[in-house]
Amino acid sequence: MKKWIAAATASVLLGSYAAATVYAAPEPSLEPAKEAGALEVRRSAYDRLALMTGLEWEQVAALDQYERTLRKARPKARPKLGSWAGLYVTPDQWSGYLNPDKEDRNSTSILFFGGIGKDGNGDGKADPTNDIDLLYSQASAVAKMGSSSDDFLIGVWEFYHNMRAVQRVNQFAQLYRTHGRLNLEGSAFPVPVGTHYSYRSTWGTARGWGGHRTHEGTDIFADHGLPVRSTCYGVVENMGWNSYGGWRIGIRDLDNRYHYYAHLSGFDKSLRSGQAVTPGQTIGWVGSSGYGKPGTSGKFPPHLHYGIYRDRGMLEWAFDPYPLLRQWEKAEFKARKKSKQAK
Questions:
Q1: What's the whole-number mean pLDDT along residues 209-230?
Q2: Of these four, 11, 117, 129, 339, which has the most CB atoms within 10 Å of its CB?
Q3: Where is pLDDT greater, at 273 or 207?
Q4: CATH superfamily of 197-342
């Protein structure tokens, strides 16, 4: 009965407008493959949905990747709906808050009641468990504002009403544009392996300067001037002076993690805020800056403070980087050994 009421109400009130609303259907190859979420399947979907919505494939990919990071950070609050697409929506958001049928799959009645659900794969149903329908619904909602770069950011704001989300999606799109591919995995230890440095787990230890606080990272003690490298593919989110961290750089990766490098003696002069970086790229040098006004240095031995934070959508939380550092260091030593053996 609810389905009949929803469809009949929408049909009567939308009239000829509903009849004129047509959504292009993608090629059958867009249906999810057996290997759910394989990069080639995702890229094919992003390309086709870009044509359908007027967005760039990088923008469609960035929207999906942002949702994937939110699900990873909050798996219980944002369970997977499809087999690989990131978008999570509630039944109210999908079908419309005033829709009497929360299981509505009719695009016409969903449109009338203000839901975002759309039929992207051309099977006649707006199905929130279908990856293509999910992607098309989100991309279409964002694309309503237009296809220019500024219009896209406005569309992202209208969808999330969260400036953090706008920044993240824009950063992800930039990374995809810079490299022209989805596969941006890879890591590097933050200082060159095989050089003179030492570190241990210093997570949670007490810090006294500036008031009582705990240590949110790992200190890597090294010679002054030793190169500091990006640990990931990412975008420089900020750089400059911090009274605690001294000269510092913050880099955002595609997994929505913020990599924090502090106490530097200086930055690579070619770096700019908003610039894309790659694993192993030199971003600065080990120093002893911080604990005071700009330029303060020498209050502690030279070292790199490395921290890592995960964005949960409205806030960020730090986690211990030590296990990752050990993993990256071991992988680099193994790669170096393999390279020498090959020669």
A1: 83
A2: 117
A3: 273
A4: Glucose Permease (Domain IIA) (2.70.70.10)
